[in-house]
Every structure is written in structure tokens, then in C-alpha cells.
Amino acid sequence: MALLVYVDDVLLASDSILEIERLKTLLDAKFTIKDLGPLKYFLSLEVARSKTSISLCQRKYILDILEDTSLTRSKHVAFPMESTLKLSSNDTNFYEDPSGYRRLIDRLFYLTLTKPDLAYSVKVLSQFLAKPAVSHHQAGIRVLSDWAGCVDTRSVTSFAIFLGNSLISWKSKKQVTVSQSFAEAEYQALATATCEIQWFFNAL
């Protein structure tokens, strides 16, 4: 049994429904509680469950950040940070709102819970919290722009299966869910193609 408390939010987890119900009864006897049912949203984390897995997403959290920074219509960039970018603590063109910069980096840090591909960029930007320059803020905005154009975009599964020189099956279709990383999208496409290949293998 695990119990997580954050202010007035309580999360219960156990492999026994009876244990959860027992603890809820005990809590309700001491406090006035409201049971919101199976976990779907907690501390800006969206939770989706299947029979075999639990998936975490921060789509709403991303949209809120984009809205706050007026980036909902910004142009999408290919990478959160250019590999050749050189940022310096000696840059004296200071950003006018250092507390705003720190808040931005804080939010990006939390976003790395489900977006590990942002971790390097956020680590670099966190070095300039004391005296952020305009260039540092621009780099932080670019990290957000990496997601601004694709937060709702579903990846496409495409494959072509040949038997000898003959094309016998092909597909190009948007995936059902929005992948949280390139790797996840690639695994989804691989799984779909593998199922198709297995079907032909059994048929032949």
C-alpha cells in the first residue's frame, strides 16, 4: 500500500482493492474526503491505464505553458536546442525579467518527467538562473517552440512489405495516440509492421 499526500490531494495505490477501500473508510472517519475514482490527473500529470501498462502525459501542462508565454501559434522547430549553440555566463545583455526566466526553467524541469529528451537543454539553461541574459531566455523559448507546433500531432505509421520483388502489403496511417517521444512513435510503427509480417508468415 502506498499513500501520497500533496496539500489536500491524496493518492492511494495498492495491489489490493480491499486494502484501498479499508484505508478510504479510515480516512473518511477522520476527515471529509471526496473519492474521485481511478487516477486520471495528479499534479499536472495525466494518467492513462491499459491492462498491461500505465502511461503518463503532460499535454495540458504544456498547453498552459504555451498559453502563458503566447507561444500557442509559434513556428515549430526541429530540435529543442541547436548542438552548436554556445551560451555564456559572461553575456551582459541581461534579460529584463530574471524571475520570469527562473519560472520558465522550473516549469521545463517539471516537463522532463515525461519529456526526457528535453533534459539536456534544461540542464544547460539552468546554469544561468542567477543572471539570465536575453540569449538564455531566447534559448528557453526555443525549447518550448519545439513542442508548440506538434503538441497535438500524431505520428504516422508507414511500412511496405515485399515478397521477393513484389510489394504485397503497405500502409501509411496516423497513429491512434500522440506519442511522447520519437522512440515511442517508432516502437508503435514497428509493432504494427511486425503484426502484419507475422500474419503473412502464418498465412504462407
TrEMBL record:
<protein>
    <submittedName>
        <fullName>Putative mitochondrial protein</fullName>
    </submittedName>
</protein>
<dbReference type="Pfam" id="PF07727">
    <property type="entry name" value="RVT_2"/>
</dbReference>
<dbReference type="InterPro" id="IPR013103">
    <property type="entry name" value="RVT_2"/>
</dbReference>
<dbReference type="InterPro" id="IPR043502">
    <property type="entry name" value="DNA/RNA_pol_sf"/>
</dbReference>
<feature type="domain" description="Reverse transcriptase Ty1/copia-type">
    <location>
        <begin position="4"/>
        <end position="82"/>
    </location>
</feature>
